[in-house]
Specification:
alpha+beta; four-stranded antiparallel beta sheet; 11 helices; Oxygen-insensitive NADPH nitroreductase
Length: 245
C-alpha cells in the first residue's frame, strides 16, 4: 500500500502531549487542508474555534468530563456546524431563506466532520497526535456560551492537537466483512463476527493494561446506549435554531 493508506491505518488517539508547541503557520496550514475537504453544494457549513485562552480551555476540559488533555495539548480546536454564514449570504442575495430544517442540520454536521478529518490526517502526516473530544456535547449550552456561538451554530466536537508523549497500539477495528455489504444489507454473520471481535478486543484491553481491563467491545458499548445518550441535545439544537422541521 502507499504511504497515505498506511498513515490512515495507523491512527491512534493521543491523550498525553509534550510541551512542544505547534508552529502557527503549520496550524494554519492544517486548517487550509481541512477546507479542501468535500462539502455539500460548496456550502462549507463549518466554523473552527481555536481556543487559546487558558481559563476557557480549563473550563471546557471540566465541562467535557474532566479531560485534562484539553488544557494540556498544544492547541485545542472546537469544530462547529455553522448554517448562519451561508443562510445569511443567500438572504443577502435575495432568497426567501428557510432556516432550521433537518437537512441543514445533517449537511452542516457532515461538512464539519469531513473538514475535521482532513485536519486530523494532515496533522498526523506532520507527526502530530490528536484526540477527538465528543464530550463537549455533555454541556453544549455552557460551551456555546464560552465560545459565544450564535443561533444556527452548534459545537459538534473538539480536537486536541500536539506532539505525542505516548505511543499506544493501534486499536483493532471490526472485521471488514462485518461493515462491507455487497448490493444490499446483510447481517446473517454479524453476530458471529462481533463475538470474534469481542475476543480480539478482550485480548487487546488485557495486554494494553497488563490485565487490569478485562472487557469487550460489546461491553464498552453498554453505557453509550443506556446512560450516555445526551437527551438534552434535541432541545439544545432547537434552541440554537436547528428546529429539525
Amino acid at each position: 500500500m502507499n504511504a497515505t493508506i498506511d498513515l490512515l491505518k495507523s491512527h491512534r488517539s493521543i491523550r498525553k502531549f509534550t510541551d512542544g508547541k505547534i508552529p502557527r503557520e503549520l496550524l494554519l496550514e492544517l486548517i487550509r487542508a481541512g477546507q479542501s475537504a468535500a462539502t455539500s453544494n460548496h456550502v462549507q457549513a463549518y466554523s473552527v474555534i481555536h481556543v487559546v485562552n487558558a481559563d476557557n480551555r480549563s473550563k471546557i476540559a471540566e465541562l467535557a468530563g474532566g479531560q485534562d488533555y484539553i488544557a494540556d495539548c498544544s492547541d485545542f480546536l472546537v469544530f462547529c456546524a455553522d448554517m448562519k454564514r451561508s443562510t445569511e449570504a443567500a438572504e443577502r442575495a435575495g432568497a426567501d431563506v428557510v432556516r432550521g430544517t433537518t437537512e441543514q442540520l445533517v449537511v452542516a454536521s457532515v461538512d464539519t466532520a469531513l473538514m475535521a478529518q482532513n485536519v486530523a490526517i494532515a496533522a498526523e502526516s506532520e507527526g502530530l497526535g490528536l484526540c477527538y473530544i465528543g464530550g463537549i456535547r455533555n454541556n453544549p449550552a455552557e460551551i456555546s456560551s464560552i465560545l459565544k456561538l450564535p443561533e444556527h451554530v452548534y459545537p459538534v466536537f473538539g480536537l486536541c492537537l500536539g506532539y505525542p508523549d505516548q505511543s499506544p497500539e493501534v486499536k483493532p477495528r471490526l472485521p471488514l466483512e462485518t461493515i462491507l455489504k455487497e448490493d444490499y444489507y446483510q447481517d446473517e454473520q454479524d453476530r458471529k463476527q462481533v463475538e470474534s471481535f469481542d475476543a480480539t478486543m478482550n485480548t487487546y484491553y488485557r495486554e494494553r493494561t497488563g490485565g487490569n481491563k478485562d472487557t469487550t467491545w460489546s461491553e464498552q458499548l453498554k453505557p453509550l446506549f443506556t446512560t450516555k445518550l445526551r437527551p438534552h441535545m434535541k432541545n439544545f439544537l432547537e434552541r440554537m435554531g436547528f428546529q429539525m422541521k
